[in-house]
Amino acid sequence: NYKFVLDGEPYVLRIPGNRTSDFIDRHAEAYNAEIAYNSGLGPEVVYCAPDSGLMITRFIDCATVSSAEALKQPKVLARAVAALGTLHGKGAVLARHFDPFETIGHYVETLGRRGGALPEGYPAVLQEAESIRQALKTAALAPTACHVDPYPENFLDSGEVMFLIDWEYAGNGDAFWDLAALSIECAFANEDEWRMLESYLGRPPRAAETGRVFLYKIVGDLMWTPWAMMQLINGNDAIDYWSYGIERFRRAVETIGVPEFGGHIASLRR
Question: What is the pTM assigned to this prediction?
Answer without folding.
Answer: 0.96
